[in-house]
Each structure stands twice: as structure tokens, then as C-alpha cells.
Amino acid sequence: MRSDAFLRPQALLDLEQIFIYLAENDLDAADRFLLSFENSVKLISGQPNVGAEASFENPQLQGIRTWPVKGHKKVLIFYFVANDRLDIVRVLHTARDIRGILEG
User: E-assigned strands of the chain?
Assistant: First the structure.
């Protein structure tokens, strides 16, 4: 199954913030992170149900899945699969208050 990927504006902002954080110390590491993210999205696009389904109280988050960015297991991609489309909601580090961010 092949899915088109769509990044919501907040997911793009998450990526930008992670890139800037990494680039402050190592621009090459920031570039490698983006490449790893792109490769992870390609993998998910080919197998959208590969990620684990996450459980949240907010009914709007029912069915959301999560998958780590390859090589950055503490950075998670949160996404929905609908009508052959991958809808990337957020890209968050596990040190953050994920439940609070997503349910807020």
C-alpha cells in the first residue's frame, strides 16, 4: 500500500525547531536528522500501519499512530492513515509532555 504524505503546519514547525536545535551544535547532524526523517516517512508511506497505535483520551486522536525517526528513537512521528494518505500531525521528542501537547 502506498500513501501520500501530508505534514500539518505544526509538524513542519516541529521539524524546523528540531533542525535548529541540532544545527546550533552540528549542522551535519541536523542535515542527517532531516534525511532520517524523510526515510522514515517513506517507510511509513509504504507500510502505513507499521506504527503502533497510541492511546489518548481525546476522541479526535483515536487511531493516531507513532513511529520513531530512524536513528533518533526518541523522536516520534505521530500520524493518521486515512484514504490512502499519511497525515503527519506532530514530530516530538519523548522528553516533551507528549500527552499534554497532543491532548491540549
Answer: 4-7, 52-53, 65-69, 72-82, 85-93
Query: What is the extent of the structural domain holding 59?
Result: 4-103
Q: What is the CA radius of gyration of the chain?
A: 13
Spatial distance between the Cα atoms of 25 and 83, rounded to a whole number of angstroms: 40
Domain harbouring 88, CATH code: 3.30.2310.20
Q: Do residues 55 and 39 touch, judged by C-beta distance below 8 A?
A: no
**What digits encode the pLDDT tens for the residues 15-71?**
999 999 999 999 999 999 999 999 999 999 988 889 999 999 999 999 999 999 999
β-partners of residue 65 are 53, 79
In the chain, how many domains are there? 1
Q: What are phi and psi of 52, to 5 degrees?
A: -75, 140
Interacting residues of 54 by C-beta distance below 8 A, sequence separation 6+: 61, 64, 65, 66, 78
